[in-house]
Amino acid sequence: MCGIFGIISKHSYELKQALQRLELLEYRGYDSVGISTLDKNKLNVYKSVGYIKTLYDKISSKKSKNIICHTRWATHGNICEKNTHPHHIGKVCIVHNGIIDNYKDLIKSLNLKDKLISDCDSEIIAQTIDRQFFINGVSMSSFIDAISLLEGSYAILAQVQDCEKCIYGVKNKSPLYVGKMEAGYVFSSDLIAFQGLIKEYYELNDGECFIANGQKITFFNMYNIQIEKESIEFKDFDYSSSKGEFGSFLEKEINDIPQALCNTLFHYKNSTHKIPDLKEYKQIHIIACGTAYHSACIGKYIIENLLKIPCTCHIASEFLFQEILTDKNSLFIFISQSGETYDTLQALLKVKDLGYKTLGITNTTHSQLSKICNYCLPIYAGKEVSVASTKVYNCTILAIYFLCKKKDIDIDAKLLTDLIKSNKEDELAKEMCKSSTVIFIGKCEDYVSAMEGVLKYRELTYRNAISYPCGELKHGTLSIIDKNTLSIAILTQEKYANSIFTAINEIKTRNGKTALITTLDVPKDTADYIIKLERKKNMPINLYSIIPFQKLAYKSCNILNLNPDRPRNLAKSVTVQ
Ligand code: F6R
User: What's the gap in Å between 389 CA and the centre of ligand 1?
Assistant: First the structure.
């Protein structure tokens, strides 16, 4: 993924200012950080492993008119300074977001093996541009010749010695925006970094490149033909990213759930959204990744129960390799919090190519997903900063109820707030952190909650856990049960009670510890830990049954003293394969 940011201006900017902007992109990766300047024809590079804040000391109060910087989510080459961007080769310094698929071929064909100084695919970009500039001189045509050799996804910014007043850039399958300042330009992987800085911006399409200085920017296509681009008005949207009274964004965002649901419902009841009538379709497919996929799986139950239309859910990265066997009159729904997830977008392009109607559900209205889909249904959850997705999950499920035209929904914010503020999960979280294995079980929709519960727990605690449909335990997995395992069951519907109680008993018989999260009144000895969930008429349980799991993951993360907002090895927006 990675985040890139750059400034070219007639005026000097403190490097610190650029890093503050880069911090708004840190959700894209936070393994290491680097910045470079081009001053007096000299490239100066500063790097650090870890969060962006680790670089502040190294740059002190330095200033420059030509700055590029990068926050990395490692794909090729481990996490260390040599693999950190910017990559400086000869006269060229680059930052890159994406993956160069043919980097190994280029190492061979351009004979670069002995020249490499890192293990990173991105270095090949700097090597290739520097080589081309050396052979044919510094020009847009040489830049394009070098870029044409690359296969894969890339948003690139490049500084070039002897060309101090310019920054080169290009985009292919990774996002890149250009903001227009009074005296220069800013470049970023996400519009979020432009807040308060610009009034107009340009959005690059794949295969477009540019050269910019403090006065003007010139765009080209990959045939080196100059192209005109219209600027777009920049509207400040809700970027609020304060933790408020909370210790972490994760805690804040779980606490935001009641308000986020109320806001989303309010918008759905009071504004007109151009959405398709699901009943006109013979079949519905929902495609997504991670937590968004789990909300899709809940969506399947909602659509099939309310509309009786067959609905299939697909993990986007799997769907890309599957044959599409469906009725011509099918609707494809894509769910993505960020609207920028690579696998989801690729699946969307595949479906669009075949001419099916598409609907996007996203929390990011200016995203690629909302632009490409035929219809877009926004979620009004507010900005989600923490890497682990929480409130958007709940609101996405509400969006699906809205699509099914379910009218009689009320959000009881008080009930939800009480649930979130209670300490009901504290003892169970302690037990989870002591157990060798935690197994989450459920049936149908409750099994989906168990899957999402596991994802949250793994993501935030780095500990292993598994989810199982309760009826499947006896077909193999019961063998792992012993006194050190903890099984957590969720039960929100009377009709599933027998299956769950049977599974709990089978676990107890084998000395496993048990917990039950339930809306039903059950005898105290049903499980070692019982967490009661209140039900409320007109508030579907699917909207909030996940909350105890979200809290358990968060509380376990706190017990283990880990970073709730930036789990290791992850990033908020996964824009690579
Ligand atoms: C987990 C999580 C991820 C995302 C997944 C899809 O907490 O956040 O699993 O759900 O990467 O991201 P979006 O929804 O942006 O497409």
Answer: 6
Give the C-alpha separation, 56 to 15, whole Å.
9
Ligand 1 pocket check: which of 254, 289, 392 to mutate, most ligand atoms within 8 Å of Cβ?
289
Beta strands 63-72; 217-221: pairing state = unpaired
Q: In this predicted structure, what is the pLDDT of residue 50?
A: 92
* H or E stretch at 120: none
Question: Long-range contacts made by residues 192-196, C-beta under 8 angstroms, separation at least 24?
Answer: 192/24, 192/25, 192/239, 193/3, 193/5, 193/21, 193/22, 193/24, 193/25, 194/234, 195/24, 195/236, 195/239, 196/236
Closest C-alpha among 363, 422, 358 to residue 390: 363
Burial of 414 (0-12, 13-18, 19+ CB in 10 A): exposed
E strands in 443-484? 465-469
Name 435's Cβ contacts closer than 8 Å, sequence gap at least 6.
Answer: 484, 485, 486, 513
Which residue, judged by its Cα, is nearest atom 7 of ligand 1?
388
389 lines ligand 1 (CB under 6 A): yes
Distance from the alpha carbon of residue 369 to the mean position of ligand 1, in angstroms: 14
Cα of 576 to ligand 1 centre, how many Å? Answer: 13
pLDDT in tens, 70-105: 999 988 899 999 999 999 999 999 999 999 999 999
Output the residue whose Cα is nearest ligand 1's atom 10: 291
Q: Which of 286, 291, 345 to mutate to test the pocket of ligand 1 (most atoms within 8 A of CB)?
A: 291
Alpha-carbon span 459 to 250, nearest angstrom: 12
Q: How far apart are CA 577 and CA 567, in angstroms?
A: 20
pLDDT in tens, 387-413: 999 999 999 999 999 999 998 999 999
* CB of 466 closer than 8 Å to CB of 481: no
Ligand 1 neighbourhood includes 253 CB (under 6 angstroms)? no
Measured from the CB, is residue 341 less than 6 Å from ligand 1?
Answer: yes
Q: Give me ligand 1 centre to Cα 291, in Å.
A: 5
Backbone angles phi, psi at 156, to 5 degrees: -130, 140
Q: Sheet of 200-203: strands edge to edge?
A: 42-49, 32-39, 63-72, 3-14, 184-188, 177-181, 200-203, 232-233
Ligand 1 centroid vs 317 CA: distance in angstroms?
13
**Do the Cβ atoms of 176 and 205 come closer than 8 Å?**
no
